[in-house]
Amino acid sequence: MTDDRARPPHRGLVRRFKVPTRLVHWSLSVFFILLLLTGLTNFVPELKTIHIGGARLFAWAHVALGFAMVAVAAVALLALNRSRSLRDDMDALTRNGPDDTRWLRHQLARLIRRGGSEPPVAKFNAGQKLNALLSAAATAGLLGTGVILGINYITKRVFSTVFVADVFPLHTWLALAFIPVLLGHLYLALINPSTREALRGMTSGSVRRDWARRHHPGWTPGED
After folding, report:
1. Each residue of 148-161: pLDDT tens digit?
2. What are the structural domains, with CATH classification, of the chain?
3. d(CA 154, CA 144)
């Protein structure tokens, strides 16, 4: 198996993510956004009432996408067992240490206009780790409540009306609460100049070496 830290062909780039990590990220992301968009149609009466073949179009699509997302999540867990590079990325993303606390304190100091040098950052900074934790928690909660609602959409014989009535608002509020996190992630990936390079790592797999040295000095491969 090829070493995850192998140098890419371009001397100015370093390999950040291999194919398994990128596939898992984009598969989950695409389904999550589609689910969010179809779910938000509940708040738009004109879209909510569109019917095809006697079924509400977006409600049906939301349920179908939800069960597909469960399958994608299951495949992602299987991939975690089989892919060393994916396991390594997951380990780096979930490992916490003193540098993460120092990084968060530094970011808070920047917000209140205080100086100080940024602590060393490895492959992921504390903000990325927090985003991953919140995303995983939201995904688990939404899938768990969504499966209940999806089954109830297909048949009313499994869960009681009272139980479903309790689950539905929880599902909705979980989705709404996660929207600011998603928007912040999209801003950093697509708009913010200093972090936009990270998107290249999740599309092509590589990032600029100078960017990696500046933002992830404790990780940058190929420096020997």
Report:
1. 999 999 999 999 99
2. 13-113+121-215 (1.20.950.20)
3. 16
